[in-house]
Amino acid sequence: MAYSVDDREYMSRALELAAKGRFTTSPNPSVGCVLVVDGAIVGEGHTRPAGGNHAEVEALNAAASAKGATAYVTLEPCSHSGKTGPCVEVLIDAGISRVVIACEDPNPKVAGEGIKLLQDAGIEVACGLYEDQARELNKGFIKRHEQGLPWVVVKMAASLDGRTAMASGQSQWITTPASRKDVQRLRAANCAIITGIGTQLMDDPSLTVRITNDDLGVTDSLRQPLRVVVDSKLQMSPEARMFAQPGDTLIATMDGPEQRERALPLEAAGAAVVFLPARDGHVDLHELLLELARRECNSVMVEAGAGLAGGFVAEGLLDELVCYWAPKLFGSDARPMFELPIQTIDAHLALAVKDMRQIGEDIRITLRPDKDY
């Protein structure tokens, strides 16, 4: 399919609009839509929080008339009814003559059916323009529907010599306030924040999003990510700080009589407790991710110590590593970034750098497993 310069310009605008929803639309995807008639934009919009309008409806509401328009949409219009009606129907009823789509919707309730219904209605459909960019924008939503797992981001803050805490466990603070504020943006973009019982007992964290709409440039209400504590033996106290915070807390533990008994006061404190299979004496992390996907988490961020973070890496569950490097040296007695059973140089995990930038005095590097290595 050959696309014109105008096609590319309008789809680029649709992607910009879609990005506005990346903090607010979950579990739905972030979608943008631009309507064009005779070379002029007549309406545009992006997906609102779950239960609100989809991008196509927002764009149509902004247009005086869309008859004969070309619609540029970053994800295949939905063909099913959920909390809102099917977007293909409103596009057909509006008299749209052509629809340009960035990528197909992997949701099995759609999965090409939206395209088919548009074509059956006599509408010209083109799909694949800026597909990679559109998939990147909704990588968590896409992975959840294609693999049944959320996108997994491991966030680490480390000294220049790769240390994340002193031997005592003290870790506040390694990085600058600018980096810690940037972490709030990461939290806001994820559906769940995962930590381990070691970090919880040492730091008693709140694990909340502490950033404003103005900071993120969005108008829709921000949600608090689900807080997840991996606690195989249920050592967590009902007096933990996170129970007093807005949002929900989920404790993942193994199943056993002690855990069942210890779960009662935690549930009374407001936590949900899920009992998962064990692996090597700990909560099976793959099963945890399956559970979070069932709870419609598109993407999760791990903020934990070397043991739990290393577990996600060692089990091949890492999709993305975001590391904040501080220009400091902690020395050889301090704790490492990961506990990883790598014995030979040939057994290393190769990573590809996707982004590198300075945040305050620190350096933030975003990496992903190098599948071509």
UniProtKB/TrEMBL annotation:
Keywords: Hydrolase, Metal-binding, Multifunctional enzyme, NADP, Oxidoreductase, Riboflavin biosynthesis, Zinc. Its cofactor is Zn(2+). Converts 2,5-diamino-6-(ribosylamino)-4(3h)-pyrimidinone 5'-phosphate into 5-amino-6-(ribosylamino)-2,4(1h,3h)-pyrimidinedione 5'-phosphate. Residues 5-125 form the CMP/dCMP-type deaminase domain. GO terms for biological process: riboflavin biosynthetic process. InterPro entries: CMP_dCMP_dom, Cytidine_deaminase-like, DHFR-like_dom_sf, Eubact_RibD, RibD_C, RibDG_C, Riboflavin_Biosynth_HTPR. It catalyses: 2,5-diamino-6-hydroxy-4-(5-phosphoribosylamino)-pyrimidine + H2O + H(+) = 5-amino-6-(5-phospho-D-ribosylamino)uracil + NH4(+); 5-amino-6-(5-phospho-D-ribitylamino)uracil + NADP(+) = 5-amino-6-(5-phospho-D-ribosylamino)uracil + NADPH + H(+). Its EC number is 3.5.4.26, 1.1.1.193. The active site is at E56 (proton donor). Zn(2+) binds at H54, C78, C87. This is Riboflavin biosynthesis protein RibD. It comes from gamma proteobacterium HTCC2207. Pathway: Cofactor biosynthesis; riboflavin biosynthesis; 5-amino-6-(D-ribitylamino)uracil from GTP: step 3/4; Cofactor biosynthesis; riboflavin biosynthesis; 5-amino-6-(D-ribitylamino)uracil from GTP: step 2/4. It holds the Pfam family RibD_C.
